[in-house]
Amino acid sequence: MKTLIIFLTLFAGYFLTPQTLQAQSRPDSIRARQRVLNVSDQKRGQFNHYRRTLKVDSAKAEQVNKVQSEYKESMKALEEEKGISQEARIARIKALIAERNRKLESFLSPEQQEKIIPPTERETGKEVKKNN
């Protein structure tokens, strides 16, 4: 019995040392690498994503990247506006979606548009065109 208690004490002491506890609290290496990405790496990643997903050349991928970046900047600016009513905000969002879709439709095929434009945003763009 005495030997069992000594064994259990040593066993628990080994697994509760600071080194073994520290191994569980270290940051995840994948997350650490993701945080290190700078803006140019993110833009290059988006560019490559569009090129692979849409199966287009670099020129078209750059056009898609430009349209998407303009759209995101406009949405961020709209989000920061505080003195605008909810109805006006919704109308502006629908207009931004329609404008982005119109630009993408000018150089992407319908199959490529389905890959890049979410279904809810494709429908929103059509609704705005019908109302105008």
UniProtKB/TrEMBL annotation:
Cleavable signal peptide: 1-23
Keyword tags: Signal
Highest taxon, organism lineage: Bacteria
Segments for region (Disordered): 109-132
Start-end of Basic and acidic residues biased regions: 120-132
Protein name as it appears in the record: DUF4890 domain-containing protein
Organism: Pararcticibacter amylolyticus
